[in-house]
Amino acid sequence: MDPDFSRGSGGPSFEFAFNSVNFSDRVLRIEIVAGDDAAGAKGAAGEGCSSLADWAHQRKRRREELRREKESGKYTDLETCKVEAEECDAYEENNEEPVAMIEESPPDIGQDGEDGESSDSSWSMECTQVLRVKSIYISSAILAAKSPFFYKLFSNGMKESDQRHATLRITTSEENALMELLSFMYSGKLTTNQPTLLLDILMIADKFEVVSCMRHCSQLLRSLPMTTESALLYLDLPSSISMAAAVQPLTDTAKEFLANKYKDLTKLQDEAMNIPLAGIEAILWSNDLQVASEDAIYDFVIKWARSQYPKLEERREILGTRLLPLVRFCHMTCRKLRKVLACNDLDHEQATKCVTEALLYKADAPHRQRALAADCIAYLDLKREECSRLFPSGRIYSQAFHLAGQGFFLSAHCNMDQQSAFHCFGLFLGMQEKGSTSVTVDYEFAARTRPSGEFVSKYKGYYTFTGGKAVGYRNLFAIPWSSFMADDSLFFIDGADDTSSQRAAPALPHPLLVTSPPPPRRCVAAYMDLTREECSRLFPSGRLRSQPLRLAGRPFYLTARCNMDQRDTFHCFGLFIAMEEEEGSPAASVTVEYDLAARTRRSGDEFVSMYKGYYTFTGGRSCGYRNLLGTPWPSFMADGDSVFFIDGVLHLRAELSVKEDSYLN
Residue limits of the BTB domain (predicted)? Predict the structure, then answer.
């Protein structure tokens, strides 16, 4: 029976057996070669870095070096030789007490390749130069139970499986992390909570397929204080790690942190301009952005893309595939939509499609728009000086915002009370356009007061608006203007008058700040890029789950599988969509139309539809196609012949949209 590689670290501890000759059946020979920390650089990425910034800088530097080496033809991938089995007829034991860690000097490397070293001419001198060797006593049963990598190494039926010595070749930057990993596989514990070393351990745990250690590292990293720097670093992990279910909670926490920190995107726009793509996507996924209108989101996205991607073709690619799906064009003004059509940064066909869909939404039946509109809270912060300028009959208007497809505004007044006896502070909500359309709105006005600092309801009601009409309260605070503006007034906190209007939609300029959760998304495109190596690990029954995406207010995800075809005759590649259950959310079903597509070498940059349909999802249910690509697994994975891998990557896309007749049910 195959071992359960996903088991957590809560099982029995074999710490006593680690590196013990009495509890071992093999010797693991670890060859350390010069790698990404060559002479003159810092030590291991975790050990030699004083901060996450150093760790990220080293990793970025190494990736740039590898890119240049590949371009110059000098690069050789260490993955091709990370494991060798040595041809030793016997395991020679020393009569002395075994040393916990046996240090050996590098063997002499002859031209004929003796001493077990490869003489492949494709190896560069840096790759073959073994700096030092460590030997450690291991139990193949314990390692195989924790890792598919070691399971295949020790039970593949080949000659090497029966030998007493096995060799791993790693770089110097991986040395400490590997020793921590091996110790964890015995004890279920790590000896560090240093974030840089935990990241190194996470990377090498992924390399050697130790899922329980990946999960443990993810939990430890989540327990540490999150910063913008660390959140961006977690989102920049290699796709094989960031997409792993064991690390999913860490990347989700990082996204949530960024979305909360940059909730007030207008205020923090300058800082957000320096955030990389993965961070921008996390922020734009949020339903809680505090912005004047969706116009501001669009303007920010275009400005950010121009700053980060100076080349037009690259900028169009990023905007079209990664960022525009996150902009809610249906909530943009018609004036801004006209600018979208004229924007040279966008593919004209895609821009036309986005604008057309937005205009169709705006023309939709008012009752459906009301059903899709979300409740929201609008905040107005007015300084004492701004209020003083309102006397005796001044007003401050907000910019227009949209609710149920209609334009609304807020206005703060200095006016006479109902009996025209004295001046006082008033707050009003109005609908902008004149016409036959009417919208009924529930509203509530509230204000913060000293000393509690909490919002206290001042006035509530409901009103059926028609164009040009407004509703509110002339004397919101029930006191004369002089008492409202007095030095001991309860309504000014740190020099600001804080008022709140509930169930009014956003779009107010400085000094008025409005927050609003936009309505649930109704159409999304999800992309999944898998390397050939990631796909090969799926065989015979593995799965890879995407990061969650939200549609109609519900979390969905994609799952790539290696499974049997419908007739159970051969293995093949499958892709599925599922809706997750959310704790605390009411049970619901959503009918979704979907289109599963893939890029091929013949289609190039274009996605080819492979399977489409619709399905009514409930929590935990999934649908998809077992043989998405219409070919057996060997043909799908064939070297050189498979049409589905472009530069070693399988590109998948799922377009999901809510069926109109199901959304309101």
Answer: 119-194
**Two tokens, residue 199:** 């990241």
Q: Is the peptide bond before 392 cis (omega within 30 degrees of 0)?
A: yes
Which amino acid, residue 317? E
Residue 539 and residue 562 in contact, taking contact as beta carbons nearer than 8 Å:
yes
The 10s digit of each residue's pLDDT in 494-543 is 765 555 543 333 322 222 333 333 444 456 778 888 888 889 999 988 89
For residue 21, which amino acid is it?
V
Q: Buried b / exposed e across 328-365, counting CB within 10 Å, b at 16+?
A: bbbbbbeebbebbeeeebbeeebbeebbeebeebbeee
Specify the residue for token string 């080819």. Answer: 608
pLDDT of residue 467: 67
Give 259's contacts (C-beta < 8 A, 6+ positions apart): 282, 283, 285, 286, 288
DSSP 222-240: HHSPP-HHHHHHHHTS-HH
Q: Which helix (H) or strand (E) holds 407?
A: strand 406-416
DSSP class of residue 319 equals I
404 torsion bin: left (phi>0), alpha (psi -120 to 50), beta (else): left
CA distance 8 to 211: 8
Handedness of CA 436, 464, 519, 432 (dihedral sign): positive
Angstrom distance (rounded) from CA 297 to CA 507: 12
511 cis-preceded (ω within 30 degrees of 0): yes
Q: Residue 378 has what pLDDT?
A: 66
Mapping DSSP onto H, E and C, the string for 239-254 reads: HHHHCCCCCHHHHHHH
**Between vectors from CA 214 to CA 210 and to CA 216, what angle results, nearest 5°?**
115
pTM of the complete model: 0.51
Question: Pairing between strand 571-579 and 622-625?
Answer: antiparallel
CA distance 347 to 298: 15
3-state secondary structure of 67: helix
Q: What are phi and psi of 95, to 5 degrees?
A: -70, -20
The span from the CA of 24 to the CA of 99, in Å, is 14
What distance in Å separates the CA atoms of residue 215 and residue 589, rounded to the nearest whole number? Answer: 31
% of the chain surpassing 90 pLDDT:
19
First to last CA, the chain: 47
380-404 CB burial, b ≥16 within 10 A, e <16 = bbbeeebbeebeeeeebebbbbbbb
CATH fit for domain 523-658, picks 2.40.37.10, 2.60.210.10, 2.60.40.1500, 3.30.230.10: 2.60.210.10
pLDDT digits (tens, 9 = 90+) for 397-412: 765 566 666 677 778 8
- Domains of the chain: which residue ranges? 395-485, 523-658
Examine the pLDDT at 437 and tell me if it is beyond 90. no
Among residues 45, 130, 34, which one has the least CA distance to residue 84?
Answer: 130
